[in-house]
Amino acid sequence: MDFKSSDTVTGPRAEDHLPQTAQAAVKIVIVGGFGVGKTTMVGSVSEIRPLTTEETMTQAGVGVDDNYGSDSKTATTVAMDFGRISITEQLVLYLFGTPGQERFWFLWNGLFEGALGAVVLIDTRRLEVSFDVIGRLEERGVPFVVAVNDFPDAPRYPIEDLRSALDLPEEIPIMKCDARRRASSRDVLMTLMRFLHSIAMASASV
Predict the structure, then answer these.
(1) Which site from 14, 36, 154, 191 is most exposed, i.e. has the minimal number of CB atoms within 10 Å?
(2) Is 119 exposed, middle or buried (0-12, 13-18, 19+ CB in 10 A)?
């Protein structure tokens, strides 16, 4: 195959390179049902150009995928989203967003491998979808926090009511967020890191 000068491969952008000061990297998964904002969160908080595997939704998903509350979506993640954020000069988080449609949940097993923790994004319009998501994390023993994404038309409930509905113990953090906003998404990740640190400290004292 003949290549033209314009076809020269230049490699990753300078801003995509891992900071030289980085000493530790942590894998985090962002999970949730279809259309809860996982791709949006990864994209809003990532310091590099995020990798997405979105494909156009077709008639094949009609009657199979539950897209209530996301009727305007025209694309869906079919494998994963990937991004990166530096929490400090030494600590980097690798973010993996999982596909939300149940027919793609078999991919979660590989994405969970090596993950230190998870963010569960929920949509209060479809709270029941979160039960299976949380159950999968509990089965695998992956520590997680819950972030309630702020959709304009979604009902709003007190945090303690949501905790009761999701049957979550007091120690698991639940917070409200706007996945479109970098600062809000970063706050969620920082809450997860503090939660993971508290678990590590508790284990060390035993």
Answers:
(1) 14
(2) buried
